[in-house]
Design a protein that fits this description.
Blueprint (H helix, E strand, L loop, with lengths): L9 H5 L4 E3 L9 E5 L1 H6 L4 H5 L1 H8 L10 E3 L3 E3 L2 E3 L7 E8 L5 E7 L16 H16 L6 E13 L3 E11 L5 H9 L3 H15 L9 H23 L1 E2 L21 E2 L23 H20 L3 H12 L2 H17 L8 H15 L3 H12 L15 H16 L4 H11 L7 H12 L4 H10 L10 H4 L6 H4 L7
Antiparallel strand pairs: 1-3, 2-8, 4-5, 6-7, 7-9, 8-9, 10-11
Length: 491
């Protein structure tokens, strides 16, 4: 059928061997549950077109629009440290690449669209709750200014899906700058044809890191650029208390966008060992482990690139290792830049790192809420001490000392209080996807009531702006909620 999407499918055209042509499973009674009007406009499509029956059929995969070439992408991956040589899109399809109104290439992708050749025994389907969760998380991360895949739509299929119980099925329509993953390179390197890997490297450089093409060793420059993108991304996660939950190499993008929001969550009470994912029994992907895992995943990207870095394997390993050893300093630089903004201090202020680490230690000691403590620092500059006071009112001299150092740092930097608090309000959100509110919205949505989901989306669209009547969206979960709370992949 004809749509306003302008397709130009470079992945299919250039990377034969990394996909299987496929079509979605037919949905019996598709119904649009959520549509991102702003994103639709950016893609050059009127929302009314996508809300029409013909538009909904495209979004759910029942019909293939002109110019689309649906494929299931192939990739490998280290999952919780163990290597799986053939994963791929087991329940997803890349419809094609859309050229948006700014001339930018973006993937249009269906998740939950049925079994593919990579399904590995699964049914290839998804349910309403997890697909609404991914929509919430994509758009919340976007509003927070964090690189991310985007949510265009969620469409109920009209079919029931068997999980622990029978649940309503759904398809999530995702938009990304691409779906190239670390696992894509791992898979390409496993093939007998070395030209596939070389073509993939050229494709990734042209699409995401074009400056690498002019480097003496483009593959090494690609690794360098991806490393910086991932260092910045993870630093941004850490500065908002986000826990991805499944940082497997098949969930790490070359573009540096957040992807695959399965068992992800935001912390309430600060603790670097926080884990919510039901499948992360050992805490491999705990909040505090994310930077180290990021470096580990980049080492897995380096491995398939070695043959393109140097003909002498020992030299290639030496060069890649020397580069990867710089990850901690890259990450630290991005983290400190974000923390300086959150503290209302100049980016080059010498006390930023120590002030931030000591603040986090105090937050952990007192069980303080991560989001509201950072947000409340603005009030400290206005004379309030409440943000770091334990509820029991037990005197903690370390709190007094930290508050004094914090104020002194601003005085020494000659920071105007009004300017600082205004800047801090733009760096410290007041509204994040609180887990108890997300779960309530998903439960209601699964039962057919989308009002809580729509209200939550409206709040999260402006996370830095405090609004009257929205206090409950800024408050931590009720006592005891986090003690038992677990998140699930939704497969």
């Amino acid at each position: 059928m004809t749509t306003s999407f302008r397709f130009d499918n470079s992945f299919v055209r250039e990377l034969s061997g990394l996909y299987e042509q496929w079509n979605a499973t037919h949905a019996s009674a598709p119904e649009l549950l959520a549509l991102n009007d702003e994103l639709a406009h950016a893609l050059g499509v009127e929302p009314a077109e996508l809300r029409s029956p013909a538009g909904v059929d495209v979004l759910v995969g029942n019909s293939v629009p002109d110019g689309a070439e649906p494929v299931a992408q192939a990739y490998a991956g280290h999952q919780f440290g163990g290597f799986s040589p053939r994963l791929g899109d087991g329940r997803a399809l890349l419809l094609g690449e859309v050229i948006d109104v700014d001339g930018v290439r973006r993937d249009l992708h269906l998740k939950g669209s049925g079994r593919t050749p990579f399904a590995r025994g699964g049914d290839g389907l998804a349910t309403v709750g997890p697909m609404l969760r991914e929509f919430v998380m994509c758009e919340a991360m976007h509003a927070l200014g964090i690189p991310t895949t985007r949510g265009l739509a969620v469409v109920a299929t009209g079919d029931q899906v068997r999980r622990e119980t029978m649940l309503p099925g759904a398809v999530f329509v995702r938009v990304a700058s691409s779906h190239l993953r670390v696992g894509t390179f791992q898979y390409a390197a496993s093939l007998d044809d070395p030209d596939v890997l070389a073509s993939l490297v050229d494709h990734a450089i042209a699409r995401h890191h074009p400056a690498a093409a002019d480097a003496a060793v483009p593959a090494l420059a690609l690794l360098d650029s991806v490393m910086d993108a991932q260092a910045e991304l993870i630093a941004r996660w850490m500065n908002v208390g986000f826990i991805h939950g499944v940082m497997n190499t098949d969930n790490v993008t070359i573009s540096g966008e957040s992807i695959d929001f399965g068992p992800c969550a935001f912390m309430d009470r600060y603790d670097p060992e926080t884990v919510f994912s039901s499948i992360d029994q050992g805490g491999r992907y705990a909040y505090g482990n994310q930077p180290a895992i990021g470096q580990w995943n980049l080492a897995r990207l380096a491995e398939p690139l070695l043959t393109l870095i140097d003909d002498d394997l020992d030299v290639a390993v030496e060069r890649a290792t020397a580069l990867l050893q710089r990850f901690p300093e890259r990450y630290e630089a991005h983290l400190l830049a974000g923390q300086a903004a959150k503290l209302g201090l100049p980016a080059d202020h010498r006390d930023v790192g120590e002030l931030a680490s000591d603040l986090l230690a105090l937050m952990q000691r007192h069980g303080a809420d991560f989001t509201m403590t950072w947000r409340g620092l603005r009030d400290v500059l206005d004379g309030s001490d409440a943000v770091l006071r334990p509820e029991s009112n037990v005197v903690d001299p370390d709190v007094d000392a930290w508050l004094a150092r914090f104020r002194s740092a601003h005085v020494a930097a000659s920071v105007n209080v009004g300017d600082a608090t205004a800047a801090m309000d733009l760096a410290n959100p007041i509204y994040v996807p609180r887990n108890h509110l997300v779960e309530a919205a998903l439960s209601a949505g699964t039962a057919g009531d989308l009002a809580p989901f729509e209200e939550l989306m409206d709040v999260l669209a402006a996370p830095f702006t405090e609004r009257v009547g929205l206090d409950r969206f800024a408050e931590p979960a009720p006592d005891g909620f986090a003690d038992e709370y677990q998140t699930f992949c939704g497969t």
